[in-house]
Amino acid sequence: QVQLVESGGGLVQAGGSLRVSCAASGRTFSSRAMGWFRQAPGKEREFVTAISWSGSTYYADSVKGRFTISRDNSKNTVYLQMNSLKPEDTAVYYCAAGRPQYYGSNLYSTETYVYWGQGTQVTVSS
């Protein structure tokens, strides 16, 4: 059983930066793919970025070049560094964890992930 807790959300001006974190319980963090998804009001949850347990990273086109995902396995934590923020980035950001040592997953899909955090609100003002 894995529990994920996001933190670091808040209100940021357009063009600013913010880093959100996701702390995971358990001892299998380093062998799981980790992803970030977001959901804006009235819209479905969408893929933002992911990092496999082998270290490969993936980004949605909308955030490529602005967002960076990283992980610190010693702290069981995954980070999302968000730069050059835009109002359209406003959403609840959710952290997600995949199955341990699993290679056959499509990291862009919500179906790949088996654990989800409660989310943290990120609001970008103009």
Average pLDDT for all residues: 95
Major beta sheet summary: 7 strands, mixed
- Strand coverage percent: over 45%
Class by alpha and beta content: mainly beta
Instruction: Give me the count of strands.
Output: 11
Main features:
0% helix, globular, 51% strand, mainly beta, four-stranded antiparallel β-sheet, seven-stranded mixed β-sheet, 126 residues, 11 strands
Walk me through the structure.
With 126 residues, this protein is mostly beta strands. Helices cover 0% and strands 51% of the residues. The protein is built from no helices and eleven strands. It has strands at residues 4-7, 10-13, 18-24, 32-39, 46-51, 57-59, 67-72, 77-82, 91-100, 113-116, 120-125. The strands form two sheets. Strands 2, 4, 5, 6, 9, 10 and 11 form a seven-stranded mixed β-sheet that branches. Strands 1-3-8-7 form a four-stranded antiparallel β-sheet, with no helix packed on it. The protein is globular. 31% of the residues are buried.
How would you concisely characterize the structure shown here?
Helix content is 0%, strand content 51%.
Write the layout of secondary structure elements.
Elements: E1 4-7, E2 10-13, E3 18-24, E4 32-39, E5 46-51, E6 57-59, E7 67-72, E8 77-82, E9 91-100, E10 113-116, E11 120-125
